[in-house]
UniProtKB/TrEMBL annotation:
Protein name according to UniProt: Uncharacterized protein
Higher taxonomy: Eukaryota, Metazoa, Chordata, Tunicata, Appendicularia
InterPro entries hit by this protein: Gal_Oxase/kelch_b-propeller, Kelch-typ_b-propeller
Length: 335
């Protein structure tokens, strides 16, 4: 019965959202799905089709004030309050966030510039391990090595604007510093390597990617951009969404840009221009939670080639929440 249940739900059933992680002893996972989320296109398509119906997607949003947290449905049909506990109400303000082994972590921010905290059930619990650098704002965090570690980079002043460190769930270790400053330049995966673009302070358009030997230059972005969101697609390309153009007085941007095969191209536009927003990729949709416009916009992509199909607005944030923390979860999480 256990094997039958596992066959019905793993690796791509509605009860098995993390695929083989939930059924590690099942022969299908052991024999045919080793690193399937990276190497097996059929598996990835199967997972997306099976578990990511828009009505089944729910995103926990933790804004700058923790007591204003809420759950947003992927189809836009509901937005309900969620109760998250934290040491301070501004605990997530200016913090970066990423997953480590499936658990949401936040890094730095206004309440404590070197803190690392983990979401356990409905509480943000501070860990004893600390960041090596003070990261108050303008920094970014990105899950790497198949979610086993997080890269945390950049910040608001001095050399911190170039520095990076890696957190593995228990320790932090410094790694290569970028060649350029990237305050509000973000982090996303391009060809499965961490990448950052632009900078608020120096108002440049430089892009670079972190290899095993250090940071390597990529083609400049067409605009002097910052305060955007970066999202890596499974087709190895990188999307840059929104932001501010410092070649145009810091004007807020609606552009959806793609870096693919070492070339930047604009592939679409947001319905409402925005910056300081957060984005999360679930199934074949990117959910972008805007700051300036407050609009929650969904970008839908084709299943196999990940071509942009449509952009729609599915709701509004209750207030102008700067870089909200986003976490995919279930419909009744902490409500």
């Amino acid at each position: 019965m256990t094997i039958l249940a596992c066959e019905n739900s793993c690796p791509c059933g509605a009860d098995c959202p993390t695929g083989c992680v939930d059924c590690p002893e099942h022969p299908l996972c052991a024999d045919e799905c080793e690193d399937a989320q990276l190497n097996n296109n059929d598996y990835k398509i199967c997972v997306n089709e099976a578990i990511y119906e828009l009505s089944d997607v729910f995103i926990l949003v933790i804004p700058i004030y923790v007591d204003e947290s809420y759950l947003q449905s992927g189809d836009g049909s509901s937005q309900i309050s969620a109760t998250i506990n934290a040491p301070e109400n501004n605990y997530a303000t200016y913090a970066a966030h990423a997953l480590v082994n499936g658990k949401l972590h936040i890094f730095g921010g206004v309440s404590d510039r070197t803190k690392i905290a983990r979401l356990d059930d409905c509480s943000l619990n501070e860990l004893t391990v600390r960041l090596n650098e003070e990261r108050y704002y303008g920094h970014a965090a990105l899950s790497i090595e198949n979610g086993k570690k997080v890269l945390i980079c950049f910040g608001y002043t001095g050399d911190i604007r170039k520095t990076c460190e890696i957190f593995d769930g228990s320790t932090t270790v410094s790694t290569f510093a970028a060649d350029w400053t990237h305050t509000f330049g973000g982090l996303g995966l391009y060809k499965n390597q961490p990448t950052s673009v632009g900078c608020l302070d120096y108002e440049h358009q430089k892009a670079e990617t972190l290899s095993a030997t250090g940071w390597i230059s990529l083609p400049d972005h067409p605009t002097r951009i910052s305060s955007h969101s970066l999202v890596g697609l499974e087709n190895q390309s990188l999307l840059l969404i929104g932001g501010e153009d410092w070649g145009n007085g810091g004007a807020d941007q609606s552009g959806i840009w793609q870096l693919k095969d070492e070339n930047w191209n604009q592939i679409g536009e947001l319905l409402q221009a925005d910056y300081y927003g957060s984005a999360i990729y679930i199934g074949r949709s990117i959910y972008y939670f805007g700051y300036y416009s407050k609009a929650i916009q969904r970008l839908d992509f084709t299943e196999e080639t990940e071509e942009l199909q449509t952009v729609s607005q599915i709701g509004n944030q209750p207030a102008d929440y700067y870089y909200p923390v986003l976490f995919q979860t279930v419909s009744n999480y902490c409500v």
